[in-house]
Amino acid sequence: MASSTSTARTLLAPLEPGRYAPSVHRPVRAKARVMEPDSEIQPHQHAWAQVAIAVSGAARITAEHATYLVPAWRAIWIPPGIEHAVTVVEAAELRTLYIHQSEGEAGPDVPAPEHYAWCHCRVLEVSPLLRELVLQMGLHADGPPAEADALARERRLGELALDELRRAAPVRLGITLPRDKRLRALCEAVIADPTRHGTLDGWAAEAGASARTVARLFREELDTSFGPWRQQVLLGRALTLAAQGRPMGLIAQELGYASASAFTAMVRRSVGLPPGRFFGRP
What we know:
37% of the residues lie in helices and 26% in strands. By secondary structure, it is of the alpha+beta class. Strands 1, 2, 3, 4, 5, 6, 7, 10, 11 and 12 form a ten-stranded mixed β-sheet that branches. The protein has a two-stranded antiparallel ribbon with strand order 8-9.
């Protein structure tokens, strides 16, 4: 099974994460970063939790043997100690909240036994209020508040942001990645250009393997078949196109669906919502 070639990317180091480290006195810190297409922040991890939000563009965060597509005004929760890398799909402005957590906490002031999901990465909806809070906190992200009232304001905004995060609805945009290097190369190629081939036969031929071999690896590595896995990739791509303002009919056509109704059926089957609701912007 041959390896697929990958697009050359500009590798970037994390942006001085220690400079924005949260603490007991400053429990929620904000950071802003503008990134160009095909750039990637190298794998790294933090001792604190973080929420990465795409203000514009789209990013892909890879962590915990999965990749998460984050289009404009969606967010991803990353627990402490989880190694992750950020790849920009299209020019993006990223806002990050770094969140201090006491020992034994899995989420924003939430004990682990009650909210086990906070122990793992998850894509979240961004409410209009959370959006404004993130923007406000980003205005003074580059330095410590000069006065006590500025520090108090940062804490109040952070408390509200945490409350909104607790209420945020999860979005099913995680794409599981295999450990097998051969299959992972094929999966990365599908994520990069999901419509290049419409069938498993086409992707297997490109990878230099038989469709039967690839199908077996999907079952063994990901406990699923190629079709449902590729649907999640298409769903993430559709959400990115919707964030650009593309009409549903054009999105369906670009993703290779014979009709808008077939595309609608796929979205309903995947997330339980019609496209209009799922792709709606906050």
